[in-house]
Amino acid sequence: MTKQEVRELQCIANRIRLNTIKSITTAGSGHPGGSLSVVDILATLYFKVMKIDPKDHKWPDRDRFIMSKGHAAPALYAALAEAGFIPEDELLTLRKLGSRLQGHPSMRHVPGIEMSTGSLGQGLSTANGMALAARLDKKPTRVYVILGDGEVQEGQIWEASMTSVHQKLDNLMVFLDYNRLQIDGNVEDVKSFTEPAARWRAFGWHVLEIDGHDIPAIYSACEKARATKGKPTLAVAHTVKGKGVSFMENVVDWHGKAPSQEQAKIAISRIEASL
Amino acid sequence: MTHTPQMVPTRAAYGKALIELGRLNPDIVVLDADLSKSTRTDGFAREFPERFFQMGVAEADMMGTAAGLAASGKIPFASSFAIFASGRAFDQVRQTAGYGRLNVKIGASHGGITVGEDGASHQSIEDLTLMRVIPGMTVIVPADAVETHQAVFAAADHEGPVYIRTGRSPVPVLFKESYNFKIGEAIVVRDGKDITIIACGIMVSESLKAAEILAEKGISARVINMATIKPIHTDIIIKAAEETGAIVTAEEHSIIGGLGSAVCETVSEICPVPVKRIGVCDVFGQSGKPDELMKAYSLTADDIARTALEVIKRKEM
Known about the structure:
The complex is a heterodimer of chains A (about 280) and B (about 325).
Chain A: H1 3-27, H2 32-36, H3 39-49, E1 64-67, H4 73-83, H5 123-136, E2 143-148, H6 155-166, E3 172-178, E4 181-182, E5 185-186, H7 187-191, H8 196-202, E6 206-211, H9 215-227, E7 233-238, H10 261-273
Parallel strand pairs in A: 1-2, 2-3, 3-7, 6-7
Antiparallel strand pairs in A: 4-5
Helix pairs in contact in A: 1-3, 1-4, 1-10, 3-4, 3-9, 5-6
Chain B: E1 7-9, H1 10-24, E2 28-32, H2 36-39, H3 42-47, E3 52-54, H4 59-71, E4 75-81, H5 82-88, H6 90-98, E5 105-109, H7 127-132, E6 138-140, H8 145-157, E7 162-165, E8 170-172, E9 187-190, E10 195-199, H9 203-216, E11 221-225, E12 228-230, H10 234-244, E13 247-254, H11 259-270, E14 275-280, H12 290-296, H13 301-316
């Protein structure tokens, strides 16, 4: 990965951050913290790693992405707009009556959304199904998932993680958005989840630990996952909730509230300054 | 219809139909949650091991996996007992197959109280209610083996989520092979003018016996097989209400939210006539032999006939 490429992906990530803040502010509600924490992963996947075609979003050989933590929808929509799946100005219709951009992703509404999510804990199971289908059809498709670190308190995640390993789904890669905060506080206080890497390894996964905002590291993890045969890969992505907007970073209150117009102005100017 | 009908459990017909379907369509895949010998998906597993996914005791994960397979163009039949397929995995069915309008087929065996000795934990009397309330879900309760076979094929041809409920115990084969099941089309299996019994599943054969009992008392009862609970066949209900003036519904399910409710909703909005629902009356089941349970919960032909006479009296008031 060249320095130029990294710089371009960082610019894309910043534009996704900008549109995430703008859309949530216009909507007056939404989840900025956990959207901003996954932006660098989204930018790397959509603009470097995944084989997709915005002009033919049902292309059968495409790679699949599932946002299992569906409340990060604003970042996903911004990435889809950046990639050309939906018009950029549509992002300002987020959460409004009649908009395709539902509060949580709906596959029947938006091209590029591969699975309807929102009720937590379900994305990995659906990703397993897609990975199994790709194997049956002997397709090169790879399936990518982002899980929240609060989300893995859902038991279905662990049912699904057993399926991924049992079925030896090496065409599957998961990012655990390990930002250590959830709605009611620190993950450690709500229901502790120490040493996620060890836990996933114990379930039989190929596990990596990365800085979830380091684009070359994210890309390199994807390459390592691709090279790993016979087991699925999970990257524990150490992230910062609210990443890129200083007053939101690591502040749990920004899990699920929109900034005021004034706060948004500050946030936008900070992000623009780094563009 | 024959006078000495063959007895076949509808779950056996489900398993057999899957194998035939699997031979015709390579996109058919089957999932099971450690119950394949009971749901009868084991035959498909033997013939098509690469298209059978053993999910272990994890119904929620199974429904999500089925949704992912469907999103990639497969036609998954996710199979478990009705109580687990609808109850344990309700949110998964709603969020993915339902909201995503995905082509997931749910094969729910062991519906109702005739599961028998396993008791209330395994007797699904809520599943039709749960599945019926999901927008876009098709809900089918076949009456016999022939109808089950055809319902499986119809479900595979139908684009969208389908719930098919079968039973554990052998039930009479009512239909000839020439029978033509269509989703959303009920049929009159016995005509009559004094009252209509609308039934589904194993209650269709009970209702036919009830019609015989009523005939001996000079009452002409129409019997409708309402195999599709959703979308409900409105026209045949209205016609029955207009022509016979009274209705009894019969289902091996709670009287709340299933076939009886669907019929009452239709009748009360369009053509109000006296109705009485036969079903499990807002209580849990218990262990026992299927025929003992049918008597204990007032689901027999005698119960239907007695209820029909009561409803006819209300008509005359």
